[in-house]
């Protein structure tokens, strides 16, 4: 085994506590849904595109999108639901970009399906906007090289993995996940960093993601 590069700056693993909060905003039809998607906070967009993943971390495959589910199951707009569900979340680097993609899909659909805007949800089946609130906390785990990093990956909670892979990249707009960023900038291993960055975490359970990361790193060392 080749001698491991030791980083000057360690990787400090963090974790998160997650709360949800009702906004009091709700939509009964597509026009109202579109109008609110345009103006609600990014934390609302994040919640409704990541809720399933946050609440059911052991399930796969790709989690459903709350907007897609509502327009399909409540309004009966199956075609629009499929279009919203097919939005590839992993390609977006910011919540703003993801929001604009959702808006574009709904606006385009309404142009050619004008009657769709006349459909209203039944009472108590409106789309209620909820925002996601996260509290980021440091853990006691550090890593200075890839062996230590892989060892810690096997110990930390899935909440920590979720934060560094999903939340840091998209919600905090760091443009890549924290693991890839540290491996490239502190260890100089761009190849491994890129391979981790290319993973599609939305098609895996968090436990599967943990095991995949550990396996990739162990093959490198």
Query: How many discrete domains?
Result: 2
Number of DSSP helical runs = 10
Radius of gyration: 20 Å
Topology as a string of helices (H) and strands (E): EHHHHHEHHHHH
How many β-strands, per DSSP? 2
Q: Give the helix proportion (percent range).
A: 40-55%
Low-confidence stretches: none
Can you characterise this structure?
- This protein is of the alpha+beta class and 221 residues long.
- The protein has two domains: 112 residues, no CATH class; 78 residues, no CATH class.
- Helix content is 50%, strand content 15%.
- Strands 1-2 form a two-stranded antiparallel sheet.
- It starts with 10 loop residues before the first strand and ends with a helix.
Please provide a brief summary of the model.
This protein is an alpha+beta fold and 221 residues long. The chain has ten helices and two strands, in the order E-H-H-H-H-H-E-H-H-H-H-H.
């Amino acid at each position: 085994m080749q001698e491991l590069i030791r980083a000057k700056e360690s990787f400090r693993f963090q974790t998160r506590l997650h709360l949800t909060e009702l906004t009091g905003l709700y939509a009964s039809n597509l026009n109202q849904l579109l109008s609110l998607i345009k103006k609600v906070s990014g934390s609302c967009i994040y919640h409704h595109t990541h809720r399933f993943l946050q609440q059911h971390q052991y399930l796969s495959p790709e989690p459903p999108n709350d907007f897609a589910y509502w327009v399909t199951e409540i309004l009966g707009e199956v075609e629009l639901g499929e279009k919203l569900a097919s939005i590839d979340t992993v390609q977006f680097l910011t919540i703003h970009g993801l929001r604009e993609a959702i808006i574009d899909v709904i606006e385009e659909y309404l142009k050619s399906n004008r009657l769709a805007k006349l459909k209203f949800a039944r009472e108590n089946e409106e789309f209620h906007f909820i925002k996601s609130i996260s509290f980021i906390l440091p853990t006691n785990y550090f890593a200075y090289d890839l062996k230590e990093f892989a060892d810690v990956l096997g110990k930390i909670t899935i909440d920590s993995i979720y934060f560094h892979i999903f939340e840091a990249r998209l919600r905090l707009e760091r443009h890549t996940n924290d693991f890839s960023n540290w491996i490239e900038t502190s260890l100089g291993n761009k190849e491994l960093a890129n391979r981790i960055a290319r993973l599609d975490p939305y098609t895996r359970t968090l436990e599967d993601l943990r095991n995949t990361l550990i396996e990739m790193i162990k093959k490198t060392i």
